[in-house]
Amino acid sequence: MQGKKKKKKEGKIENPLGQSVQSPSRQSVGVSQEFSNDEESIGTHESQERYHTEKFFNRDQAKIKRESQEREHTEKVFNRNQEKSKRRLLRQPSIRGGFNPRLIREPSVLLAQCGRWGKSVWQVLPQPEEGSPTLSEEETQRSEPETQRSEPETQRSEPETQRSEPDISLSEITSFVKEISDSGNSDITTDVLVQFIKDYPENVDILAFAIGKIWDFCKGSDSEDYKKSVIHTSAPDDILQAMKTHFKNPIIQEQSCGALWSLCSTTPAYRKIVIRAGASPRIINAFIEHIHNVDVVSAGLGCLRTISPDTEARESIRVLSGVEHVCEAMKVHSDVTWIQRDGCAFLSNCAVDVERQQVALALDVEIEAITNALFTHQNDPSIIAGGCFVIKNLTHEESNIRRLRQVDGIMELLEKTSLYCELPCAKEDAEAILETFGALESDDYHLENQVIKSISEIEKDYRTTADNKTIQVIALIEDYSWSRKVFAAILNCLTNLSQMYPDQKESISSDLIIQHVVTHMKKYEDFTPIQINGCKLLEEMVKDNDSCWSTIFDMDGCEAVVKAITKHDAQKVGRVVLRALSKAFLSEKEFEFFIREKIDPCFQLNQKMTAS
C-alpha cells in the first residue's frame, strides 16, 4: 500500500468519560516534555496527573483508529480483487457472461468468506500452451479487467433477447463440462451447469444439455454429492423457469421433470425445497401440454409420485386437478407398464393422508384407471402389486368399497391374484381386499332390501303428498348411487310417479335427474334393470316436454339409449326416445347422419326402426 500519509487533524476528541478535551499537537507535546523536568513550571500535582491521562488516552485512540483503517483498507482491496476476477473471467461479453474454456485451467480454492463463488474462481492462462487455440486481438481486449473499459455499463450489457446466436458452441460446452466433471468436484461442476442455464435462457439445446447433465449426475453413483451441490444453488428455480419459458418444448419438459425427480428422490429436506419452488404446477402443466408424449409423462409422473406423500404437495395437486390429469395420462398410455405402475402409486399417495389417518373418496376416473391397469397387465406382477396396494388403501373408506365391488370382473381378478401371483405382498393384499369386500357385502345385501322396500312404501303411501314423495325418492339417489339394485328401483319409482302425478313431471325431468340417468346407464351397461328402467323414464320425460330434448342429447343420452337397445330388450321404449330426440334436429337426414357417424354399430338397427 503506497500513498501519502494523511495529516492528523487537530481538534477535540471524546474521552471515555464523555468529556471533550483538546488534542495536543506535536509542538505542544514537545514543550510539555521540556517542562516536565522543571517541577516548578508545571504547577500542582493534580495538573500533572490530568495531563498524563490525556496523553495516554490520545495515543491509544490514535492506535485504534490506525488499526481500523488498515483493516478496512485490506478488506476493500481483497473484495475489489475478487470482483475483478469474477468480472474478468466469469462475465465476459464475448461468451454472453458464460465460461470460456480457452481462458481457464484448474480451479483455485479461495477463502471461505468468499461464498460459493470462492470455490469456482478461475485462473487465467499466463501463456497459451503449444497447440492450444489463441485468442484474437478483439477477444483479448474483451477479456481485460472491467476497470479498463471506458464504455458505459448500459452499452456493454445487451438484452438477452437481442442475441440470437451464442458465442460458444454446444460441442465446446460438452467437452468443457466433461473435463470439469472428470475432476470429481461436484460443487464446481454444478456451478458451471447452473451458470449455463442462467446465461442461455433462450437456447433450447444448451438448456436441454445442462438440465439433462444435472439429471444424470443426480442419479449417478455419486449422486448424493451432486444433489447436495445442486440443491444449495438456484438450480430448482432456474429449472422451473426454463419449464415455464419453453412449456411447448417436450425435451425441456422431460429433462426438467427428470432433474427435479432425481433431486427429491431420497432426502425429505430436498423434496420440500423442490415443492416450495413450485414443482407441482409446472409438472401438471407439462402433463396438459404433452399428454401424448410418453417420455414427458414418465418423467413427470415419477416426480409427482415422489413428492405426493407431502401434505403441501398433495394440496397443490388437488387444487390443480392433478389426479384427473394423471388418470387421463394412464388412459392414453395404457400399454406402458411403468406409467401404470407409477400412476397407481401416485393415486395411492394422494388418497391416503397418513398424518390425519384419513382416506379420500375416490373419483370415478381413479377407479377406472386403477382397474384398467389391473385388467390390461394381468401378467405383470409389479402392476398387480401396485394396483392391489392402492385398492387396499381405498377400502378403508366404506363408499370406495361399494363402488369398487361393482366393477365387473374385479372379484375374479382378485381371487386369481390371491392364488397365483408370484409376489407375496400382492397375494396378501388381494386376500385382505376380498375379506373386506365379503364382510361389507353381507351388510349391504340386507341394507339394499330395506331401502327397496322403503321406496315401494313411499310410492303407495296415500298420506304423503306428491311433492314429498318426489323429494324423498330423489334424495335417495345421492345416498345409494353405489347400489345398482337400489338405483334401478329409484328409476322405476320415478317413472310411476311421473305417470301418477303429471304435475310432478317438471321436477322429475330436471337436468340433475337426466344427468344421473344417463351416467348410470353408461356406467352399468351390462345391468339390464338399469338400462330398461332408464329408457322408460326418459320416455316419460320426452312426452309433451320439448325442453328436455336438448339436455338429453347434450349429455350423450342418445348414445346410451342406442346401446341399451342393442344389448338389452329395450327396443320398444328406446325407439320412442330416439324418435323424440330426432325432433331436436333440423331434419331426419341430420339425425341419421349422427347415428351413422357416432353410433355406427347401431346404424342398421336405427334404419329398421325408422322404416317401421
Helix segment count?
Answer: 32
**Compute the gyration radius: what is it?**
40 Å
Tell me what portion of residues adopts beta-strand conformation.
Answer: under 5%
Please tell me the CATH architecture of the largest domain by its name: Alpha Horseshoe
Return the domain count: 4
Mean pLDDT: 76
- Based on secondary structure, the structural category is mainly alpha
The CATH topology of the largest domain corresponds to Leucine-rich Repeat Variant
Shape, per Cα inertia axes: elongated
What's the CATH H-level homologous superfamily of the largest domain?
Answer: Leucine-rich Repeat Variant
Top CATH class of the largest domain: Mainly Alpha
Please state how the strands of the largest beta sheet are arranged side by side.
1-2
The main β sheet shows up as:
2 strands, antiparallel
List low-pLDDT spans.
1-42, 88-164, 605-612
Share of helix, binned: 55-70%
Topology, number of strands:
6
